[in-house]
Design goal:
Elements (H helix, E strand, L loop, with lengths): L1 H5 L1 H18 L1 H22 L10 H30 L2 H6 L6 H28 L8 H28 L3 H6 L1 H6 L15 H8 L2 H14 L6 H27 L1
Helix pairs in contact: 2-6, 3-4, 3-6, 4-6, 4-7, 4-11, 6-7, 7-11, 7-12, 11-12
InterPro entries: ABC2_TM, ABC2_TM_bact-type, ABC_2_transport, Nod_factor_ABC_transporter
Membrane topology: Multi-pass membrane protein
Keywords: Cell membrane, Membrane, Transmembrane, Transmembrane helix, Transport
């Protein structure tokens, strides 16, 4: 036990390296996670952008926060898939027979999700810059944006862990992400909620994506953030804590 505790972080590093190798060997996953949000961004900016009234001359500035959330929501579905495959193939049982900390196997998937989604976010921002995205934000607002995106990724990754550990099939492990990917479309990510019907607007204004998008948008544009950032943080932290508890229960029960 002492040896396990002593080498906890080195064990986690091994598990992280294993997960990252799986990701980089699966180029179809990388392409899907990165290309799909970029395709959405190109479509909405160059095809629909001229017909969408957002009160800003640079639609890509308005659109980018929602695209980043879609990219993260798409990326975490593969975390659920890889967890499901590890469980089905008995990989966890093999590692349990070794003198390593058991939780590092799960944390390896979680941290690899953070790293891979961070790479996708950086690539999408670079493409947005080529499309005309500009930000007047300084270093601290950018760090705040990075922190919000990190919390959002962690929250969804623990939700993905529940799906990956509890699903009965591969399709079930990744199907949970579809509603999450769809949420930005019923928010202020693409158009202001003022233009929506009353019932739809009520839902859009009070779901987590809208507050997160508005907080990121205000930070990147150098505008006052107001209460949006606190609502966004509350949603992210709340979802993360609840999902973590249920994910650990599912982990202990399954393996």
């Amino acid at each position: 036990m002492e040896a396990v505790k002593k080498h906890y972080f080195s064990d986690m590093g091994v598990m992280l390296g294993r997960s990252m190798r799986h990701i980089f060997r699966s180029w179809d996953t990388i392409i899907t996670v990165t290309i799909m949000p970029i395709a959405f961004m190109l479509l909405f900016v160059y095809v629909f952008g001229g017909a969408i009234q957002t009160g800003t001359d640079n639609y890509v500035n308005y659109l980018l926060p929602g695209i980043l959330l879609i990219a993260i929501a798409s990326g975490i579905s593969y975390t659920a898939y890889r967890l499901f495959i590890d469980v089905q193939r008995g990989i966890f049982e093999r590692f349990h027979s070794m003198p390593i900390a058991r939780s590092t196997m799960l944390w390896g998937h979680v941290i690899s999700s953070l790293v891979s989604n961070a790479i996708s976010v950086v690539v999408i921002i670079l493409v947005a810059l080529l499309m005309g995205f500009r930000s007047s934000a300084g270093l601290l607002p950018w760090l705040a944006v990075a922190g919000i995106l990190m919390l959002f990724t962690l929250a969804l990754t623990w939700v993905a862990a529940i799906a990956g550990l509890s699903a009965k099939s591969v399709d079930g492990a990744s199907a949970f992400s579809y509603p999450i990917i769809f949420l930005p479309f019923i928010s202020s990510a693409f158009v202001p909620t003022d233009s929506m019907p009353r019932v739809v607007r009520a839902f859009a204004d009070n779901q987590p994506v809208t507050s997160i998008v508005e907080a990121i948008r205000s930070l990147l544009s150098g505008q006052p953030v107001g209460n949006d950032i606190w609502v966004a943080l509350a949603w992210c932290v709340g979802i993360m804590l609840v999902a973590y508890v249920f994910a650990m229960r599912a982990y202990k029960k399954r393996v």
